[in-house]
Design brief:
The complex is a heterodimer of chains A (about 210) and B (about 120). Chain A is mainly alpha-helical. Helix content of chain A is about 60%, strand content about 5%. A three-stranded mixed β-sheet of chain A has the order 1-3-2. In chain A, a hairpin with a 5-residue loop joins β2 and β3. The longest helix of chain A has 19 residues. Chain A is globular and about 60 Å long. Chain B is mostly helical and about 120 residues long. The longest helix of chain B is centred in the last third of the chain and has 14 residues. Chain B is built from seven helices and one strand. Classes of the chains: A mainly alpha (about 210), B mainly alpha (about 120). Chains A and B meet through α2, β1, α3, β2 and α5 of A and α2, α3, α6, β1 and α7 of B.
């Protein structure tokens, strides 16, 4: 059986991932309208299927995955069809994350030749945790930048000035910026259709927090 | 073009996601996705087909309606019922997973996923 303990995730600089995500958005979502309808891009542009599958979250704690043959993205059916759309933001990010794997990591799929599910099982179990996390990190970075365009994020941060002022948070911004970010993230995340956690991550990753107000 | 592909194209044209379409049709999304992928046979019941037509803005009696019914009847019974091969299971499996905390699934979780896929079909 192949030994994958030396398997490496190819390093892609953060700026390069961002640039790939920006180009992808411009190409597949030229209107720039927010939130980015990633599901529409997957079905109409990438010609993939959205495949709701029962119990994948319950049995394997998986939200979504890209099929190895690239024909579709599988999502947990309960989350996808939730009556109250409680998982809508999370699913949007999950879809974008899987598109990230599709765009950034196709070389892995073509490089690894599995003959049976057992081979794939062996790969997933034996690839070093750190390398596996790198693939995930890259896909997350792609997804975040795709759904949260930097220029719009800057504009949205500019809009919260009055909110900060009304709640006497301007001073606190200098001393406890993380707490202020937690306070404003429910407002900031809305136009992008992502979770508060994602927006908090974006403003920090993009070096936009604390803002110069 | 099979029935599934035909409906997916029409659904995309009217701007409906799979979720929205299944809610309007009152259909299980997992099963409907299989219909669109040509794994399950299309519905033959006329009332159901009429409901589909209404959702995708196809007028009953029009040429498009006839085409929809034709697609459904041509594909009926075409779908073979068989066990998935290793290659098919492999195609359906992921290399990477979106999990909470981006951690690798455990051996047990992975085994359960393979079982789920085998039970669920292609």
């Amino acid at each position: 059986m192949t030994d994958y303990s030396d398997f490496k995730c190819k390093f892609i600089p953060k700026d390069q991932i961002w640039s790939i995500a920006d180009e992808f958005r411009q190409k597949h979502w030229p209107s720039g309208e927010l939130p980015v309808d990633i599901e529409k891009i997957i079905e109409s542009d990438l010609k993939m299927f959205v495949i709701p599958e029962s119990n994948i979250h319950e049995y394997a704690k998986i939200d979504a995955y890209l099929r190895s043959d690239f024909t579709g993205i599988v999502v947990d059916e309960k989350q996808y069809m939730d009556d109250r759309d409680r998982y809508k933001s999370r699913l949007r990010f999950s879809f974008a994350h899987e598109v990230g794997h599709y765009i950034l990591h196709q070389y892995v799929y073509s490089h690894l030749k599995f003959d049976s599910p057992k081979d794939l099982f062996n790969f997933i179990m034996n690839v070093p945790e750190g390398e596996y996390n790198n693939f995930e990190w890259q896909a997350n970075e792609f997804a975040g930048r795709l759904l949260v365009p930097r220029e719009v994020l800057i504009t949205e941060i500019g809009k919260i000035r009055s909110l900060l002022k009304d709640h006497s948070l301007l001073e606190m911004l200098q001393t406890e910026s993380d707490r202020v970010l937690e306070y404003v993230s429910p407002y900031l995340c809305k136009p992008f259709g992502v979770s508060e956690k994602v927006i908090e991550m974006r403003v920090q990753r993009e070096g936009l927090w604390p803002p110069k107000i | 073009m099979g029935f599934g592909e035909y409906i997916k194209e029409k659904r995309n044209k009217v701007g409906l996601s799979l979720r929205e379409f299944c809610r309007l049709l009152d259909e299980d999304a997992s099963n409907w996705s299989k219909v669109e992928r040509g794994i399950l046979s299309p519905p033959q019941d006329e009332e159901k087909l009429k409901k589909i037509a209404k959702i995708i803005n196809v007028k009953i009696g029009s040429d498009q309606w006839k085409s929809l019914v034709d697609h459904a009847s041509i594909d009926a019974g075409k779908i073979p019922d068989y066990l998935m091969s290793d290659k098919e299971v492999l195609d359906a499996l992921p290399v990477f997973f979106r999990t909470i905390g981006s951690v690798k699934p455990t051996q047990e979780e992975l085994a359960k996923l393979i079982e789920t896929i085998k039970k669920g079909g292609k």
